[in-house]
Amino acid sequence: MNIGQAAKASGVSAKMIRYYEQSGLIPPADRRASGYRDYSDTDVHNLSFIRRARDLGFSVAEIGDLLGLWRDQDRQSVEVRKLALSHIETLEKKIVALQEMSRTLGALVACCNGDERPDCPIIDSLQSGREGEDVEIRARVGAVEKLAR
């Protein structure tokens, strides 16, 4: 089947299929005499595996490890579990970071009058904030100040 058919069957876009080939995640497809890629049912099965792993947020490198384990009939499930637990830890750290970003942005939005004036604590915070510095938001005036450490 051609790349469009493989994309439809696997749920992976043609562009991503090319990327996975280029990155070595999947082997290059066979070529027809016309030069077009030719994918087998096995290729589609591999692409579907990759799509499901991507849906769970695994990185390309982690998917490479998962593919290696999947293909290894002598694998130990402890290795797969270890990889999944590591990924869960990464996801939980990202969740905490996203929640912190949401709280900070929510506090800044609460301080913004959203009127016709140019004064804006959101812009002020983005302009003056430095990485690693805490900010204190005062709702009474919408001021953003750096906390002394």
UniProtKB/TrEMBL annotation:
Organism ancestry: Bacteria, Pseudomonadati, Pseudomonadota, Alphaproteobacteria, Rhodobacterales
Residues annotated as transmembrane: none
InterPro entries: CueR, DNA-bd_dom_put_sf, MerR-type_HTH_dom, MerR_fam
Keywords: Cytoplasm, DNA-binding, Transcription, Transcription regulation
Domain HTH merR-type residue range list: 1-69
Subcellular location: Cytoplasm
Keyword Transcription on entry: yes
UniProt-recorded Gene Ontology molecular function terms: copper ion binding; DNA binding; DNA-binding transcription factor activity
Keyword Cytoplasm annotated: yes
GO annotation terms (biological process): positive regulation of DNA-templated transcription
Pfam families for this protein: MerR_1 (PF13411)
A Gene Ontology term for the protein's cellular component: cytoplasm
UniProt-recorded name of the protein: MerR family gold-responsive transcriptional activator of gol and ges genes
